[in-house]
């Protein structure tokens, strides 16, 4: 079953592994299209910051994953369709000086979106007035639609219907798992 080939990636449930926030205007990131990125984006460690915070290989922004060199080194050679690897500088907002240490990370800007949510078979929470999806309790992908795309065009993508769902093909999951990253976990899309 094609659905069994997909995973959701998420931050490990550990309050010492902080979420990141934008430290600049987000611009066109998160709008489902490639972004012309020449400079590193600016991020900050998000509040609240644990006194024991630890920077690991995987962190999250509301608009996507932020990863370390360990993960970027295995993803960059793949040149994955629909995913831009954007350099990022992350700072700790609790350090008052303008020259505080910045940490090198990469934002994975996924602009590839595929409308393949099987709304009839999925368990969806939505607004009855405007039909906007609030959450998905059970995710079912429309395999007929997915089969129309070459595998290379669906290795990593967001659901068009609910762009906060990032799906990763098992081959990419295995490549990431092979470097034993700290801070991320995978869930089968089923």
Describe this structure in words.
This protein is mainly beta and 190 residues long. The protein has one domain (2-188). The protein is 10% helix and 36% strand. The chain contains three helices and 13 strands; from the N terminus they run βββββαβββββαββαβ. The chain has helices at 69-75, 143-146, 170-177; strands at 6-11, 20-22, 41-45, 58-61, 64-67, 83-91, 102-110, 113-114, 123-126, 133-138, 156-159, 162-169, 184-188. The strands form three sheets. The protein has a six-stranded mixed beta sheet with strand order 2-3-6-7-5-4. Strands 8-11-12-1-13 form a five-stranded mixed beta sheet. A two-stranded antiparallel sheet has the order 9-10. The chain is globular. The relative contact order is 0.25. The model has no long low-confidence stretch (mean pLDDT 91).
Entry keywords:
globular; 190 residues; mainly beta; five-stranded mixed sheet; 3 helices; 13 strands
Secondary structure elements and pairings:
Blueprint: E1 6-11, E2 20-22, E3 41-45, E4 58-61, E5 64-67, H1 69-75, E6 83-91, E7 102-110, E8 113-114, E9 123-126, E10 133-138, H2 143-146, E11 156-159, E12 162-169, H3 170-177, E13 184-188
Parallel strand pairs: 3-6, 8-11
Antiparallel strand pairs: 1-12, 1-13, 2-3, 4-5, 5-7, 6-7, 9-10, 11-12
Summarize the structure.
The protein has 190 residues and is mainly beta. Helix content is 10%, strand content 36%.
Summarize the biggest pleated sheet: 6 strands, mixed
Outline type: globular
Mean of residue pLDDT values: 91
- Give the percentage of residues in beta strands: 35-45%
Write down the secondary-structure element order.
EEEEEHEEEEEHEEHE
Helical residue percent? 10-25%
Number of domains: 1
Unreliable residue runs: none
- The number of E-state strands comes to 13
């Amino acid at each position: 079953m094609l659905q069994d080939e997909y995973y959701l990636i998420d931050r490990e449930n550990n309050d010492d592994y902080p979420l990141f926030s934008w430290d600049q205007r987000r611009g066109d990131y998160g709008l489902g299209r490639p972004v012309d990125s020449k400079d590193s984006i600016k991020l900050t460690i998000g509040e609240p910051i644990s006194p024991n915070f630890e920077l690991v290989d995987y962190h999250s922004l509301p608009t996507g994953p932020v990863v370390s060199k360990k993960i970027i080194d295995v993803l960059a050679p793949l040149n994955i369709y629909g995913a831009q690897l954007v350099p990022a500088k992350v700072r700790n907002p609790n350090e008052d000086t303008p020259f505080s240490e910045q940490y090198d990370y990469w934002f994975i800007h996924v602009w590839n979106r595929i409308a393949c949510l099987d709304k009839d078979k999925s368990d969806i929470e939505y607004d009855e007035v405007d039909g906007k999806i609030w959450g998905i309790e059970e995710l079912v992908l429309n395999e007929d639609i997915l089969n129309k795309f070459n595998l290379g065009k669906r290795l990593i993508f967001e659901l068009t219907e609910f762009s906060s769902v990032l799906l990763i093909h098992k081959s990419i999951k295995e490549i990431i798992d092979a470097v034993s990253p700290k801070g991320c976990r995978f869930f089968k899309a089923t």
